[in-house]
Amino acid sequence: MSALLFITGASRGLGRSFSIALTQKYFEKYAGKHALTIVLLARSDEGLRETERQVYASFGAEHGHRQQLHIERHCIDLSNLETLDAELDYILKNIRRELSSEETSETGGGNEVYDEAILINNAGSLGDLQTISTLPSLQSMQSAINFNVTSACWLTSKFMKHFSSGGSNSNAKSKTTIVNISSLCAVQAFKTCGVYCAGKAARDMFHATLAAENKNVRVLNYAPGPCDTDMQTNMRESETIDGDIKAFFRKSKDEGTIVVPMQSAQCLSKLVFGDFDFESGSHVDYFDFCSST
C-alpha cells in the first residue's frame, strides 16, 4: 500500500504541524509497513526545508520509517493565477511513485498507483483587517480572494481530476480525502474580518458541494481553532482590527487558552485516519472533538 499526503502552506505554523502530525498518525496506523509520499507547497524554500527536516527527524530514521517516507518540496505562489494552472499540472503529474518496478509495470505508472490520496488545503491569508466601508482598494480585495478562494478551490478541482475515481482521469483509483482548512469565521461574522470571513465561507460551501457531488470522496471543512501562529500574532498586533476581537485574542494568549498548533494538527490526524467519524462535507471544529483530549 502507498499513500500521498499533499499539504499547502507547509512552510510554517499549522501547515508544518499538519505535516508532522499526519505523518506520525499514518505510521502509527500502519506500523511502518506502507509507503508515504508527502508533497509540501509554500512560497518559502527555507521554511519548506525546515518542515522536511522536522518531519524526517521526528518520524524518519529514528523510528525506522525512513525507507517508507519520501518528501517533495515545491516553492509556489498560490496567489499568482497566471502561473497557477501550469505549476499545479507539473507538480501533480510528476509526483514520485514509491513502487517497485514490477508494481509500476502492472499499473502502467501514473497517479493511479496511490491507494490513498489526501489533500490538506491549508494556505491562506488574512487580507485587510478593516471595516467593509473602509477597505483600501479593489486590487487588495481581489488579491485576497485570488489566494483564499480561487486558488484553493482550483487546487481541489485539479487534485480531484488527478486522484479521485470521480475525476476526469479515468485511471485514477485512489481513495481520496479532501480537507479544507476552515475557520469559525466561515460560519460567524467578525467585525473588520469581512474579506477573510467571506473567503472562508466560500471555501466551505465549495467543498460541501464537492461532497454532495462525490459520495465516494471524504470531504472535511476543518476549523482548527484559534491557534498560536503568525496569523494569530498579526491579529493581536493589528492597528485596524476590531478592538473587542483584539482584546479577546490578547487575553487568550496571556491566559494560555490559545490552541497549540500541534494539538489541533493531532486532532485533524484522528479525523483523517478514522479515529473520529464525521459527515462528509460538514464543518467540524477542533472544539467539537479534541479540546479535552
Low-confidence runs: 98-112
Indicate the structural class: alpha/beta
Helix content: 40-55%
Compute the CA-based radius of gyration: 19 Å
Please write the string of helix (H) and strand (E) elements.
Answer: EHEHEHHEHEHEHHHEH
Mean pLDDT: 88
Total beta strand runs: 7
Q: How would the global form be characterised?
A: globular
Distance between the termini: 30 Å
Annotation field: number of helices: 10
Largest sheet: 7 strands, parallel
Strand order in the sheet with the most strands: 3-2-1-4-5-6-7
Q: Beta fraction of the residues?
A: 15-25%
Describe, in short, the structure shown.
With 293 residues, this protein is α/β, with parallel strands linked by helices.
Question: Which tags fit this structure?
Answer:
7-stranded parallel sheet; alpha/beta; 293 residues
Overview of this protein structure:
With about 290 residues, the chain is an alpha/beta fold. Helices cover about 45% and strands about 15% of the residues. The protein contains 10 helices and 7 strands. The chain has helices spanning about 15-30, 45-60, 80-95, 100-105, 140-165, 195-215, 230-235, 245-255, 260-270, 285-290; strands spanning about 1-10, 35-40, 70-75, 115-120, 175-180, 220-225, 285. The chain has a 7-stranded parallel beta sheet, with helices on both faces. α1 (about 15-30) packs parallel to α2, α3 (about 80-95) packs parallel to α5 (about 140-165) and α7 packs across α8. The longest helix has 26 residues, at about 140-165. It is globular and about 55 Å long. About 45% of the residues are buried. Mean pLDDT is about 90; it is low at about 100-110.
